[in-house]
Write a structure and sequence with these properties.
CATH topology of the largest domain in chain A: MetI-like fold
Distance between the termini of chain B: 59 Å
Number of domains of chain B: 2
Strand content of chain A: 5-15%
CATH class of the largest domain in chain B: Mainly Alpha
Structural class of chain A: mainly alpha
CATH architecture of the largest domain in chain B: Orthogonal Bundle
Strand order of the largest sheet of chain A: 2-1-3
Helix content of chain A: 55-70%
Shape of chain B: flat
CATH superfamily of the largest domain in chain A: MetI-like
Oligomer: heterodimer
CATH superfamily of the largest domain in chain B: MetI-like
Strand content of chain B: under 5%
Strand order of the largest sheet of chain B: 1-2
Largest sheet of chain A: 3 strands, antiparallel
Number of strands of chain B: 2
Shape of chain A: flat
Order of helices and strands of chain A: HEHHHHHEHHEHHHHHHHHHH
Radius of gyration of chain B: 32 Å
Largest interface: A-B, 87 and 87 residues
Chain lengths: 433, 462
C-alpha cells in the first residue's frame, strides 16, 4: 500500500470517527422521537379512558333519601273499596310531600315548600305507587323508603356543585343546602347503586334517564344489519372470489366496493334519507331503516374481509373436492365456505362493532328524536346508544355529563365484548395452512 | 298480515315441493338403491322442484305489491266527483293522503268529508280485491310451477346444473348490490343537488363567501333570500383537517417507524393493539371528549397564555380528530415500511449507515409513495368525519384561518340542516344534498388517487 492511499484511508477514517458522535446523537434523537410518538399515542388512549371513566362511573350510582312515608288511607282510597283504578290514580305525590313536610315542619311558606318538594325526583311517587299496588294492605301503615333525590341534590352530594360559589350562581341555594346537610347529618342521604340507569328509558330528568331504550334500539338495528349484511356480503364475496370471470363488470364491482368502503358514513345517511324515507316511504326513526342504512355501510367491509378469508383457503382443498367429482358449487359450499367461516364471522363481528358505534348516518334518518319508550318492534321509533350519547352530551344539565360518560362506558363495554369475541374466534379457529 | 300468511303458505308449498320432488326422483329409479342411475343426487331434484315452486310465486307476489297501489289510486281517482278529478297535483296529493289515512284508520272516517269517505270505501274494496287476486295468482303459480317441475323429473334431468345455475345467479345478484349502492348514492344525492342548483346557481354555491341557510317563512320578510356560499364551510373543513393531519401524521409516522424498525416483536405485539384501540372507539366518544375535556382544557390554557380561545374551537376538534386518525396513519405506514425489502436496509447497513440514517435515507424514500397514499386516505377520512366536528367545532360559518375560533364544516352543516322535520323541498334542505355531493366527490377523488398510488407502490416490490 502506498503512503498516499494510507494517508487517505486515515483521513477518511478520521472523518468518519469525527462525525460518529454527531451521528450517534442523531440516531438517539431520531429514536427518541419514535418512542415519544408511541408514548404520546398510549398517553392519549390512557387519558381518554381515564377522563371517560372518572366522569362516568358515578352514573351507575344515585343519591337516595330515606323518608318515612305514611300510606294514608284517606288520601289513597277514601271509600275503602280498594278498586284498582282508584289505587292507580290516587295522588301519591301528596304522600311524598307529606313525608317531606313531616321532616321539615318549620317550612310553611309556599315558595319554600316548592323548593323542599324539589329535593326529591319526580319518580318518587311512582315508587310509592308501586309499593301500594304490590300490596294494598300497606294502606294505613307507615314505611321507611329510600326515594330518589333530584339531580341537583345528586350533583351536590357527588361533589359537582361547589359550595363556595356565591349563592346566586349555584343551582342550589343556601336554604336547600341546609336541608340537605340536615338530612345528611341524620344519615338519611346515601349514594347507592342505581338500577334505573340500566333498566330505564330516556327521560328529560337526568336522574330518571336510562340507557335501556337506546340499548334495545341498537340491538334491533344491529339485528337488521347482521341478517342482511352477513348473508349478502358472504354471497357477494363467494361470487367475486370463486365464480366471477375476470371481466369489465367484475372489475367495476371491485373498484366500487373499495371506494364504498371509504365513502364518509354521513353520505350513507343522505342515501337513506332520500331513498328509504323519501322514495320508499319507510317510517322515520325506525330501527328497520337504521339497519338498512348500516347494512349498505358495512357491506363493503364484510365483503372485503370475507374475500380475504376465502383467499386464505388453499387451492388444494378445491382441487381435492373437484378430484372427488364435486361441482364448483359443491366444492365451495361443502368445503371452502366452512373452512373460511371463522374468518368471515370475525369480519362480520368487526363490521357489526363499527356499525354499533356509528351515529352520523342515523342522525340523518331521524333516530335523534327524544323517545322515552323502550322500542318493541323494528318499526317503533327508537334511538341507538351512540346517538343517545350525542343527545345527552348536548343537554345542558350538569347531571347529564355523568349520564353521557356512563352511556359511553356501556357502549365501550359492548364494543369490548364484540372485539374480544372476534379475537377469540380468530385465535380459536384460524388455521395456518 | 294477509301477505305474511300467503308467504308462509308459499313456503309450506315449497317445503312440500322439495319432499315430493325428492321422493319422485327416488321412486323413478326404483328406491334408494337405484339412485346411482340418477344424474344428480336426489336432494337436487327436491331443490329444483322447490325453486320452481317458490321463485315465480314470490316474484309475482312482490311485483303485485309494488304495483297494485298505483292501479288502486288510479281507479279511486276515476271514481271521484268530476270537479275533484282536475285538481292541481299538490291538492290531489293532500286528498289522497286523507283517503289513505281513513283507509289505514289513523283518521276516523266520521271526521272526513263524504267524498273522502266514499273514496276510502272504494279503496278498501279494491284493496281487498287486489289482495285476493294477487294471493290466488301467486299460489296458483307456485302450484303450477311445482307441478311442472315435478312432472319433468326423470333420471336424465340435470337437476344439479339447474339448481347451481340459480345459486350462481343469486350470488352474482348479491355482488351487484355494491354497484346499486353507488348508483343509489349518486342518483339520490345528485338529483336533490340538481334541484338545489335550480334555485341557487352553482357559482354562487361554490364561490360565495356567506353561508346563512335560514330561509324566511314568507317571501317579503327581511333577509328572506338566505345565502348559500359554501366557501366558509370549505375553509373550515380544510382548517380542521389540516390541524388533524398536523397531529396525526408525525405521531402516526414516528410510532410506525418505532414499532416497525426499533421495537422487538413482543413489545410490538402489546403496543400495536393498544394503539389500535383508538381506531375502534366510536367517533361520538371522541366528540364528547373534544367538547367536554379538550375544549375547556384548551380554553383555560389559552387564558393562561393570554389568548382568547373559543369554547368550541377548530383547534379542539382538529386535535381530537388527529388523535382518532393516529392509528389509521400508523398502521398504513407500518404496512408500507415493512413492505420495503430487507435487502435495501442491509445494503445501507453495509455502507456503514446508522439505523436512523437507513430509515431516513433509504426506507422512508422507498416507502414514501405508499405513505403519501395512506395520508391521502386519512385526509379523506378527516374531511368526512362528522360527529367530532358536530359536537366540538361549532356552527358559525366564519371565513377564518384562526384555529382558536369556532368554524363550521361541510358535515356539520349537513347534519344541522337535516335534523328535525324540515320541509323536504326547501332550498335549505336541498343544500344539504349539494354539500353531500361535494363531500362525496371530494372523498371519492382522494380515495381513487390514494388507492392508485398505494397499489402502484405495492406492485413495485412484489
Amino acid at each position: 500500500m502506498s503512503e498516499a492511499t494510507q494517508a487517505r484511508a486515515r483521513t477518511s477514517q478520521q472523518k468518519v470517527a469525527a462525525g460518529l458522535k454527531r451521528r450517534y446523537r442523531a440516531e438517539l434523537r431520531f429514536r427518541s422521537y419514535g418512542i415519544a410518538a408511541v408514548a404520546l399515542g398510549l398517553l392519549f388512549v390512557a387519558f381518554l379512558f381515564f377522563s371517560i371513566i372518572s366522569k362516568g362511573y358515578t352514573a351507575f350510582e344515585q343519591t337516595f333519601v330515606r323518608l318515612e312515608v305514611s300510606y294514608a288511607a284517606d288520601k289513597i282510597d277514601p271509600d275503602g273499596k280498594r278498586a284498582p283504578a282508584d289505587l292507580e290514580g290516587a295522588n301519591y305525590e301528596a304522600l311524598v310531600r307529606q313525608a317531606l313536610r313531616e321532616r321539615f315542619p318549620e317550612v310553611t311558606e309556599r315558595g319554600d315548600l316548592r323548593k323542599l318538594y324539589g329535593l326529591l325526583s319526580g319518580s318518587a311517587e311512582t315508587v310509592v305507587r308501586a309499593r301500594v299496588l304490590a300490596d294494598p294492605n300497606r294502606i294505613g301503615s307507615r314505611e321507611t323508603l329510600w326515594l330518589m333525590a333530584d339531580d341537583h341534590v345528586d350533583m351536590l352530594v357527588k361533589g359537582h356543585i361547589d359550595r363556595n360559589v356565591p349563592e346566586d350562581e349555584r343551582s342550589i341555594d343556601d336554604r336547600e343546602l341546609g336541608w340537605i346537610d340536615r338530612l345528611t347529618a341524620e344519615h338519611r342521604v346515601e349514594v347507592r347503586f342505581n338500577p334505573k340507569f340500566l333498566t330505564g328509558g330516556d327521560s328529560r330528568e337526568p336522574e330518571q334517564a336510562g340507557v335501556r331504550g337506546a340499548v334495545m334500539g341498537s340491538l334491533f338495528t344491529l339485528l337488521v344489519t347482521l341478517f342482511l349484511s352477513f348473508p349478502i356480503g358472504v354471497a357477494a364475496a363467494v361470487y367475486l372470489e370463486e365464480f366471477a370471470k375476470r371481466n369489465r363488470l367484475t372489475d367495476i364491482i371491485e373498484v366500487n366496493i373499495n371506494n364504498l368502503a371509504a365513502v364518509p358514513s354521513i353520505v350513507f345517511g343522505l342515501l337513506g334519507l332520500a331513498m328509504f324515507i323519501q322514495f320508499f316511504g319507510l317510517p322515520r326513526s325506525a330501527p328497520l331503516v337504521g339497519g338498512l342504512v348500516l347494512t349498505l355501510m358495512t357491506l363493503p367491509t364484510i365483503i372485503i374481509t370475507s374475500r380475504a378469508a376465502l383467499k386464505a383457503v388453499p387451492p388444494s382443498i378445491r382441487e381435492a373436492a373437484f378430484g372427488m367429482g364435486a361441482s364448483p358449487v359443491q366444492a365451495v359450499l361443502h368445503h371452502v365456505l366452512p373452512l373460511a367461516m371463522p374468518g368471515m364471522l370475525t369480519g362480520a363481528i368487526i363490521g357489526m362493532a363499527r356499525a354499533l358505534g356509528e351515529s352520523a348516518p342515523l342522525l340523518m334518518i331521524g333516530m335523534v328524536a327524544f323517545i322515552a319508550d323502550v322500542p318493541k318492534t323494528l318499526s317503533d321509533p327508537a334511538t341507538v346508544l351512540p346517538v343517545q350519547v350525542y343527545l345527552w352530551a348536548s343537554s345542558p344539565e350538569r347531571a347529564f355529563v355523568e349520564r353521557t360518560s356512563g352511556a359511553i362506558m356501556v357502549l365501550l363495554a359492548f364494543l369490548l365484548v364484540m372485539n374480544a369475541a372476534a379475537v377469540f374466534l380468530r385465535s380459536r379457529f384460524e388455521r395456518r395452512w | 298480515m294477509h301477505t305474511s300468511v300467503i308467504v308462509v303458505a308459499i313456503l309450506v308449498l315449497t317445503a312440500l315441493g322439495y319432499r315430493l320432488g325428492r321422493r319422485r326422483s327416488v321412486a323413478l329409479v326404483g328406491g334408494p338403491r337405484g339412485t346411482r342411475n340418477l344424474h344428480s343426487l336426489p336432494s337436487y331434484y327436491g331443490f329444483l322442484t322447490a325453486l320452481w315452486c317458490a321463485l315465480p310465486a314470490l316474484g309475482v307476489l312482490g311485483a303485485w305489491h309494488l304495483l297494485d297501489e298505483r292501479v288502486i289510486v288510479g281507479a279511486v281517482l276515476a271514481e271521484l266527483p268530476p270537479d275533484m278529478q282536475h285538481l292541481p297535483a299538490d291538492q290531489q296529493g293532500l286528498l289522497l293522503n286523507d283517503v289513505r289515512n281513513v283507509v289505514s284508520g289513523s283518521l276516523p272516517a266520521a271526521e272526513a268529508r263524504p267524498e273522502v269517505q266514499s273514496a276510502a270505501r272504494e279503496w278498501r274494496r279494491l284493496q281487498s280485491l287486489s289482495n285476493a287476486a294477487g294471493a290466488s295468482l301467486a299460489l296458483c303459480l307456485g302450484l303450477a310451477g311445482g307441478a311442472l317441475a315435478w312432472r319433468r323429473i326423470s333420471p336424465e334431468l340435470r337437476a344439479r346444473n339447474g339448481v347451481e345455475r340459480v345459486v350462481e345467479i343469486a350470488l352474482a345478484l348479491c355482488s351487484m348490490i355494491a354497484i346499486l349502492t353507488t348508483i343509489g348514492i349518486i342518483l339520490s344525492v345528485l338529483y336533490e343537488a340538481l334541484n338545489f342548483f335550480r334555485v341557487v346557481p352553482l357559482t354562487d354555491f361554490i364561490f360565495g363567501t356567506t353561508w346563512s341557510p335560514q330561509m324566511a317563512m314568507r317571501a317579503d320578510q327581511v333577509g328572506s333570500s338566505g345565502a348559500f356560499g359554501a366557501v366558509p364551510l370549505f375553509t373550515g373543513t380544510l382548517l380542521i383537517s389540516l390541524i388533524a393531519m398536523a397531529i396525526a401524521v408525525p405521531i402516526g409516522l414516528f410510532s410506525a417507524i418505532c414499532l416497525a424498525e426499533y421495537a422487538d416483536r413482543r413489545l410490538r405485539a402489546v403496543i400495536k393493539p393498544l394503539l389500535e384501540v383508538l381506531a375502534g372507539i366510536p367517533t361520538v366518544v371522541y366528540g364528547f371528549f373534544a367538547a367536554l375535556t379538550v375544549g375547556p382544557l384548551l380554553r383555560s390554557a389559552g387564558q393562561f397564555a393570554g389568548l382568547e380561545v373559543a369554547s368550541e374551537s377548530a383547534l379542539s376538534a382538529g386535535f381530537v380528530m388527529g388523535i382518532m386518525i393516529i392509528p389509521f396513519v400508523s398502521s398504513l405506514a407500518d404496512d408500507m415500511i415493512t413492505a420495503v425489502p430487507q435487502s435495501l436496509r442491509d445494503g445501507a447497513y453495509a455502507l456503514g449507515a446508522t439505523r436512523s440514517e437507513t430509515i431516513r435515507r433509504v426506507v422512508l424514500p422507498a416507502a414514501l409513495p405508499g405513505i403519501v397514499g395512506g395520508v391521502l386516505l386519512a385526509v379523506s377520512r378527516a374531511i368526512g368525519e362528522t360527529m367530532i366536528v358536530v359536537m366540538a367545532a361549532g356552527l358559525a360559518a366564519k371565513l377564518t384561518f384562526n384555529p382558536l375560533e369556532a368554524v363550521t364544516t361541510v358535515t356539520v352543516q349537513i347534519v344541522t340542516l337535516l335534523i328535525g322535520d324540515n320541509e323536504f323541498n326547501s332550498p335549505k334542505t336541498l343544500s344539504a344534498f349539494a354539500l353531500g355531493l361535494v363531500l362525496f366527490v371530494a372523498t371519492l377523488l382522494l380515495n381513487i388517487i390514494a388507492l392508485k398510488i398505494v397499489r402502484k407502490y405495492r406492485e413495485q416490490y412484489e
